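Box S2. Input/output pair 1.
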Amino acid sequence: MRHEVDFLVVGSGIAGLSFALKVAPYGKVCILTKGDASEGSTRYAQGGIAAVMYDSDSFDKHIQDTLVAGDGICDRAVVEMTIREAPDRIRELVQYGVNFDREGGGGRFDLHREGGHSEFRILHHKDNTGEEIERGLLEAARRHPNIEIKERQFAIDIITQHHLGQRVTKHTPDIECYGVYALDCDTNRIDTYLARVTLLATGGMGNVYSTTTTPVISTGDGVAMVHRARGVLSDLEFMQFHPTSLYNPAEKPAFLITEAMRGAGAILKDREGKEFMQKYDKRLSLAPRDIVARAIDNEMKISGKDYLYLDARGIGRKHLIEGFPTIYAKCLSIGIDITRDMIPIRPAAHYQCGGIKVDRNGESSIHHLYAAGECSCTGLHGGNRLASNSLLEAVVYAHNAAQSAIAQVCSGECVVDSTGSNATHYPLSTIHSKIPDWNAEGMVLNEEMVLITQTKKELQEIMWNYVGIVRSDLRLQRAFDRLNLIFRETEDLYNRSVLTEPLSELRNLIACAYLIIKMARARRENVGLHYSLDLVK
């Protein structure tokens, strides 16, 4: 089937929904999401969203904290723009119906502090902020007459001149996006979605690693699609490992223990119950994530243990239960009472700081293709994301992308009223009419599911062991050699098989693993989240 819209959005987290709500008054919007609309990285965000809201803090302090965490390689102009826009974007979230905790139940926002922050500036909703943001935005999107949300639609490839028979390479000027091919996961039919503007808000690639806090759908789909379409990608060597995931090996994804808990006074301790962060950084348990994750990794290797501890008992029973109810209930469900027991923790892959390279309007190197949220690379995070800057980046760049996309689509022609119900949909270009539908002729359904599942496990172990928190030239070379074999086997399977979601996800994970290794090998300095034993001075 063929579908035509003005604005096509791939992903239904904070970035995709914010963009959709802003462009909906100006045209027809379709949101594709490969799972349920509410499922994605946004809903798993516990800590909150960073913003300067009161005079006790300042933009300059937040800017400096971001630059320090990014280890000197952030784009300063982007940092300043994002942080100065933050209060306006927060107010918009509130207008959409998002509830943040307030002091005494009303009035001023109740603010947390997290690692790397010099002030209390984290707006939150208890310890499930992302879930509250997702709820508010999704409800607003479902109410809008111009927004259609199509669940269980897995975007397979970006449609470009390549699909018109033209040869497209990374040196091809003026690559254009005309939409995407998407797999209907219920019917296994691949549909053609054509649009004047496409936004990728596909989240991260945490499942390239065996231990991750990200949901199972975080398989780097947007990055892999842009890679195949010959778009520009950047900084993928900077994979952030969250220092404190709950040690519960049977559970995937790993349950996150928010950094806000350390901001409230929780302390990292070794298996003997002794503090150790004083050996690594004067900021102790509130040092930036790259430093804390490496410290924990080193302590685990020294002791030979699989986990360490986070001691939250000093916070106090009432504050723990009321301020961190999700964590309290989760730990209690596996026999840990955090008011009396220390929490077993270990690092887990958490967030990609690089991705699809975009300008300040969120537009990629491919014309008419935007990206926002974790799949994008804006320059805000540099070598290491400051805690709670991710949701902020997503909502700021969704806003900027929406303004730019509206200008592209409308060109002074749009008719819009206050509700957006009278927005006009204009015919697509003649090029769109020439786009062929997906051709699956000659493909057969592959019954060897074990080939896909086993290869995925092998890939994840390779990345965890060789391309993790600490790397070396030898480890990267070994990972690259093994990845080459996995790539060839999987491409052979792809070239003769009917396309399925598991096979598509495996291809995307392999592409992301290749890009991480390639960029890590090219980075010849230890900076931010990239740390190689061969580059230690």
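Box S3. Input/output pair 2.
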Amino acid sequence: MADNSAAASSANRAEAIIARRRAARGKPNRLIDEGSPYLLQHAYNPVDWYPWGDEAFAAAAAADKPLFVSVGYSTCHWCHVMEHESFEDEATAAVLNEHFINVKIDREERPDVDRIYMTVVQAVTGSGGWPMSVFLTPQRQPFYAGTYFPPQPVYGRPGFREVLLALAGRWREHRTEVEATAARITTAVRQVAGGAAAAQVPAQAPQSAPSELLAAVVDGLAESFDARYGGFGQAPKFPRPAVFTALFHHYRRSGSEPALEMARVTLHAMARGGICDHLGGGFHRYSVDRYWRVPHFEKMLYDQAQLAAAYAAAHQVTGDAAFAAISAATLDYLLHDLQAPEGGFYSAEDADSARDPEQPEDKVEGAFYLWRIDEVRAAFDAAGGAGTEAGEMIADYGLTAGGNTISDPQGEFGAGNVLYRARGDGPLPRRWRDALLTARNRRARPLLDDKIIAAWNGLAIEALAVAGRVLGRSDLVSAAAAAAEFARRELIRDGRLLRRYRNGEARHAAGLDDHAFLIGGLLELYHSGGELWTLQFAAELADMILAQFAAPGGTLYDTPGGQADLIMRTSELYDSAEPSGTAAAILGLLRLGRLAGNGHWERAARSALESVTGAAAAQPTAAPLLAVAADLAGHPPVEVVLAGEWEQTAPLRRELARHYLPDAVVVHLQPAAAAWWQQRHPSVAAMAEAGPGARAYVCRDFTCDLPVSTAAELARQLEAIAPATGRRAL
């Protein structure tokens, strides 16, 4: 297990902040009994907070007050700002407590609630974000919504107390109008978020032209591609890893050089930019500028996992060692800073941190990551480095005396510099990195959100398993297995998957994305580790999806049926920072059905795909993962069977790992597993009887090549599948 000292010290600082607030304010509110770090941060606010649930709903009905619902997460910079300005302010809290029943939600624990009301915010304001502020009737119907509200009117935004008093007045004096507005908004949101809009778009049968949707995604991305700086659009720029999946898949299918170039340029630009942590590894949430230089500094598990997998795939496709190095550095950050002792992975590190370790509440964004030139020189001096080395580093990484960041209006970045590759290529030299890390590790680390989310751990399992086999690192595969074992041990209760684990407690019904992302991780873990329990666990989760989330006609809902605290069920089709749960579920069911010989899962995947392909075709760039699913469903898979003992097949497995084969179904036909495969795939199991030694069978278009026993022979067969997209050094 990895060294968890950084995570432990960060968690200790979070506890210290809560202790200081307890000492300053005394009596906590109801959030003190919650497990979410975000809710606990607000447990000593003067606001009379409730967690989302029946107690809050009953209080609103009994008091005849509207609900004020504030949604955020622990590493959200503007959530911290609004807490400090408004929720810690006694006068604002008095207004909230007098006129509203106040509810605080961690969006990472309850993405189902967040998704519903974010749809309202986007419809009302034209955009979204966190903190999210919504006002509901006691029946949980929304009548007003926004994001961050400043304490006083500024930049065209009304002051928060001004909003509160105006809404309280409307509730008292114009109740009928407010309730009518709430009913109209609720009806509109049900049509959009519930999938009715998708059903109105004529479905396109994926079998008729399986690659058309994928080609439309790539064409749409080309229109917004920034050929000079990488990425799509101008600023801010967000990594959307599902885009890389689509680009590489289209290149694999068609040999499209533009698709490969868009992915290659963007991944290189991100790795050179300030969005990449050149010292500790990993990626920040997004770039505020076009150049990938100045990030929003929070680090999310889902970004690390998906980007590590994307860089590993880029290495497979291109042979570029730089991509392998970035994938490895990102996953090393996971193992060092986010891995829990139980085997799972924590959620995130904050964007904000303290300037002074002794003053943990005096936090600013980026304090842990920014450097003044004098700090760099001092770090090199302390490590015995020459002044010329410091000068080279300062030039290579774009440091200036006045700071190279785009400062916010308060100028809190000051003369701070973010590290980015201004000249040259390659990783930070080890000597420079060690000197700066030693100095940085004396700073106050950003606070850690130490809850473990099922969906994000599924993405981490997938990334570790993929990179482990591509990079030849068994430690990554072992970490993936430990996380999968943790999920099976701690997140399954009474035959159901739960979403969140913290301090020994698993809680909250898991969503479609939790199930689907775990299936994706388990399939890759089987590919890398060959253990049958991973397939069996994936099969259990697949059956849960069909029992809890599937509706007649193929629709897959984001939430299980029967959740009384939700005013609707949503069906999200589009990929944002995280992939669509629907798309991931379709891919998982399709791949698992093909691998295990289960036609029921594959038919369910096709039915779900047919129900949403029309909606995806209407906005193809919004749904790259659905396009990949449609393409896979429309083509027969490549099947690779590796027969023999695990140690015997090692050379064949290493050769297979060199090739980017997203449509491959890989079976590890070890003698101990022959009976299991005999029950499900008798024709596959028969391959074990061909004789001793390791053999590989490559099958496509329902025909198998002759078995081979050497890596060179296997390479020739694999390269014959798609000669236009063979691995190349760029």
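Caption for Box S3: The two ends are 36 Å apart (CA to CA). The mean pLDDT is 91.
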